[in-house]
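Researcher: We're teaching a course module on how sequence relates to structure. For the next exercise, students receive a sequence and then see the predicted structure as tokens, so they can try to spot secondary structure elements on their own. Here is the exercise chain.
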Amino acid sequence: MTANIELGPARETVRVVIADDHPVYLSGLRMLLDLIGEVEVVGEARTGTEALSEIYRLRPHLALMDVNMPGTSGIEVTKTIATRCPGTSVIMLSMLEDRDTFLAAMRAGARGYLVKGASSEDIGQAIGTVRRGGVVFGSEVASWALDYLNKPRESSKPFPELTDRERAVLELVADGLGNASIARRLGLSIKTVRNYLSRIFAKLQIADRTEAAVQARRAGLGN
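Model: And here is the predicted structure for the students to work with:
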């Protein structure tokens, strides 16, 4: 049984690329989309680089993209798509209800943000809303969006492409702390710290933590 979505006056098949590094979830997502009328999955990707390649090649109407993928992150892919493929909208998918990641995704140009586990009906409604020019996010993160829109504007922060948590990690790198010390200070695992550093290096296009510390101190981070 399929679920139809409202696409506005001009009904059309929505061409979608899906990207996720977990093959089981990717397969399940395709099955969910197959239940939605007027949606066609035209491509799949398991890394950020593959996602960009498929989107450049296929020029789909929409991409459903995991936030965290090997290599180029979903957020960086989204930023590139917003500039180079404005005809492709992005709905981000995330395992975690993480405020910083949500805000970074929307700043990068995502038109939607859903927590994984959304039903085919929820996904269908999100696709329909985005195709009609709207922006959509799950109820889990709606309060964050309202808080962000209603809070007073803050003074500009260094490295605006980084999330608040990534900036906090970078600041501790500038202070000379190692991964274990950063993990204890922020209540994270060492593996999570390494993942943050990988994203920081990719976003700032730097090679190592020494260069990261230098750039951070130049920008006023660190004690």
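Model: If you want an answer key for the exercise: The domain at 164-218 is CATH 1.10.10.10 (Arc Repressor Mutant, subunit A). The chain has a mean pLDDT of 85.
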